[in-house]
Specification:
- The protein is an alpha/beta fold and about 400 residues long.
- It has helices spanning about 5-10, 55-65, 80-90, 105-120, 130-135, 160-170, 180-185, 220-230, 240-250, 250-270, 290-295, 310-320, 350-355, 370-385, and strands spanning about 70-75, 95-100, 120-125, 140-145, 170-175, 195-200, 210-215, 275-280, 300-305, 325, 335-340, 360-365.
- It has two domains: about 5-250, 3-Layer(aba) Sandwich (Aspartate Aminotransferase, domain 2), CATH 3.40.640; about 250-385, Aspartate Aminotransferase, domain 1 (Alpha-Beta Complex).
- Helix content is about 40%, strand content about 15%.
- α7 links the parallel β5 and β6 (about 195-200).
- The structure holds ligand P1T.
Length: about 400
């Protein structure tokens, strides 16, 4: 089955057997518990909704199929999914090699929880250069944690090359695939072991639910993750599961539109006299344009740029737009714009932010699926308010 067909049907084939109502859309099973006739036989396999729920199950089947994984788990948020990966695969004294440019909340989880509370050691490297990752691996390295493209600088890393090195050294590779969605990139097919998503973003696609997911094919690790998810209760609710199931049905259509609009906006920004630099992997000026073409089947809807000037120019520009909402998050149908240094990456210390390029004049856009001409007009309106 091809991607678009899986996105619509997997997990939701109508039950036409005796007793099945034939719903073409999986119902929202709100029941917190499931009754049984015999004490040792849960009816239909379900006991209690923290452990398993039919709506969440349907979503997990769909999520697994989109990443060509055997298994998936749906979580209360992207951060909950990341936390369970850490709790399951890491212990005191272990070491992790991580891309130095990651979502700020992920860096916060690593430094304020895993490092401080559990004595797990992190080396942050510029994974654009595979050698940096290779050189950072130590005898106690358990995981390599990647985003590609990164949030917010749109840097890429070679997932295939890094996974090959990791395999040789017995280290697992986790890829946060939130920015591309499985429509444009499938890290497991490139050799990664575990994929993590904030389903809050493109998978749900409508900025109306917080959720996370893990997809993988290793049964032993899956069972451990599932055990810890059930034990800690980090599950996605039935209603949110329904919203993500519904969102995924239009993922393919949405991603194509996000990309089309992002390309137009990136090209426009490159011509604007108020812009210093644009970061979008679909531009030939992107230093990893060739890798982007090889590793992904599209370039996505996220981009960032440096405005000429400083914090004040960025602030004036951002506060004078009408269609773009000045808001954190991404991946919804509506365009969002934000200032990483003050918003999504505020928890990263200033010195570290500047070292990795999250400067005060950096602006990030999640390009929605409105008409691109209207979006460009809105940006022009903002630029007219600044004098550089
Ligand atoms: O917000 P939550 O669903 O918990 O997901 C966290 C997360 C994980 N990974 C990536 C790459 C992310 O971008 C996020 C959340 N990011 C934002 C809220 C943001 O505006 O970048």
């Amino acid at each position: 089955m091809k991607f678009e067909t899986k996105a619509i049907h997997v997990g939701e084939f109508p039950n036409l057997e005796k007793g099945g109502a034939g719903d073409v859309v999986i119902p929202i099973h709100l029941s917190s518990t499931f009754a049984r006739k015999e004490i040792d036989k849960p009816t239909g396999g379900y006991e209690y909704s923290r452990t398993g729920n039919p709506t969440r199950d349907a979503l997990e089947k769909k999520l697994a199929s989109l990443e060509n994984a055997k298994f998936a788990l749906a979580f209360a948020s992207g951060m909950a999914a990341e936390t369970i990966i850490g709790l399951t695969l890491l212990g005191s004294g272990d070491h992790v090699v991580a891309f130095d440019n990651l979502y700020g909340g992920t860096r916060r989880l690593f430094s304020k929880v895993f490092e401080q509370n559990f004595q797990i050691e992190f080396s942050y490297v510029d994974a654009v250069n595979v050698e940096n990752v290779k050189n950072a691996i130590k005898p106690n390295t358990k995981l390599i944690w990647l985003e590609s493209p990164t949030n917010p600088l749109m840097k890429l890393c070679d997932i295939k090359a890094i996974s090959k090195i990791a395999k040789e050294r017995g280290v697992l590779v986790v890829v946060d695939n939130t920015f591309m969605s499985p429509f444009f990139q499938q890290p497991l097919s490139l050799g990664a072991d575990i994929v993590v998503h904030s389903t809050t973003k493109y998978l749900n696609g409508h900025s109306d639910s917080i959720g996370g997911a893990i997809m993988l094919s290793d049964e032993e690790i899956y069972n451990k993750l599932k055990f810890n998810q059930n034990t800690t209760g980090a599950i996605l609710s039935p209603f949110s599961s329904f919203l993500v199931l519904r969102g995924i049905k239009t993922l393919a259509l949405r991603m194509k539109e996000h990309e089309k609009n992002a390309m137009k906006i990136a090209e426009y920004l490159e011509t604007s006299p108020k812009v210093k630099k644009v970061f979008y992997p679909g531009l030939k000026s992107h230093p990893q344009y060739e890798l982007a073409k090889r590793q992904m089947s599209g370039f996505g809807g996220m981009l960032s740029f440096e405005i000429k000037g400083s914090f004040q120019e960025a602030k004036t520009f951002l506060e004078n737009l009408e269609i773009f909402s000045l808001a954190e998050s991404l991946g919804g149908v509506e365009s969002l714009i934000e200032h990483p240094a003050s918003m999504t990456h505020a928890s990263v210390p200033k010195e570290e932010r500047e070292k990795i390029g999250v400067t005060d004049n950096l602006i990030r856009i999640s390009v929605g699926i409105e008409n691109a001409d209207d979006l460009i007009e809105d940006l022009k309106k903002g630029f007219r308010r600044i004098d550089v």
